[in-house]
Amino acid sequence: MLAALALLAGCGDRSGAPGAERRVDPADYTSFFLWAGVKPPPELARAAEIYILNGEVKADDPDRFVPMRAGVPRLPGKQVWLVVRAARLDWGEGVHRALLTDLARWDGAGNAVAGLQVDFDAATRGLDGYADFLTALRQRLPARYKLSVTGLMDWSAHGDPAALARLAGIVDEVVVQSYQGRSTIPGYAAYLNRLARVPIPHKVALVQGGEWQEPAALRSDPGFRGYVVFLVNPAD
């Protein structure tokens, strides 16, 4: 896995203008989600940005951070985000200590650590409470680290403007998930055409091999910052 990570880097983002629907090919993009147990596609020669699943907080224990990486690779020339997947938000002190320790370890190994991303399925109607959690988390992070979150497409259509504005003052970006499992969510264009309602710099997460046709409104959306491809192992 460490050797595979060292080979990652982004090819140019060739997602192109709106056109015929096609399958998401990692070779066309520069930013990737890399989860534990997933082998990066061999055709990738370079990557500009990698979101790496570092660990998780499970539903049965809010005080324990479960690491997903055995070691810390060196990834020169790549922007790295450490991702924590969370099933709950009432984190204990042990979780916070582990996250800060890992950020420092990855930094100390010579990596360009952009910051921390929280992967949590915050319900659209619960955004105000989510903002409370993120405010407290932001206060614990050293100022040099950015804070990113994943988001649901429904935020763009039904998110409360006041709650979204609160998030805009806390997080540096939101990566909106357009897939579930290995498949693109049907009707994604209707949601993403309203993504400009989200007043936070935003990227769109695509799943490797999923169907995709870029909605016309994305390229004129002032907050749109590109794509992140969720890598998967080939189906058996």
| End-to-end CA span | 20 Å
How many structural domains does the protein architecture include? 1
Global mean pLDDT: 89
Order of helices and strands: HEEEEEHEHEHHEEEHEEE
Provide structural commentary.
This protein is an alpha/beta fold and 236 residues long. The chain is 23% helix and 27% strand. It has helices at residues 2-7, 93-108, 127-140, 154-158, 161-168, 188-192; strands at 22-23, 31-34, 49-57, 66-67, 79-86, 112-119, 146-152, 173-177, 179-180, 183-184, 202-207, 211-212, 224-230. Strands 2-3-5-6-7-8-11-13 form an eight-stranded parallel barrel. Strands 1-12 form a two-stranded antiparallel sheet. A two-stranded antiparallel ribbon has the order 9-10. Helix 3 runs parallel beside helix 5 (161-168). The longest helix is centred in the middle third of the chain and has 16 residues, at 93-108. It is globular, with a radius of gyration of 17 Å.
Concise structural overview:
With 236 residues, the protein is of the alpha/beta class. The protein has helices spanning 2-7, 93-108, 127-140, 154-158, 161-168, 188-192; strands at 22-23, 31-34, 49-57, 66-67, 79-86, 112-119, 146-152, 173-177, 179-180, 183-184, 202-207, 211-212, 224-230. The strands form three sheets. It has an eight-stranded parallel beta barrel.
Question: Keyphrases for this structure?
Answer:
disordered N terminus; 23% helix; alpha/beta; 27% strand; 8-stranded parallel barrel; 236 residues; two-stranded antiparallel sheet; 6 helices; TIM Barrel
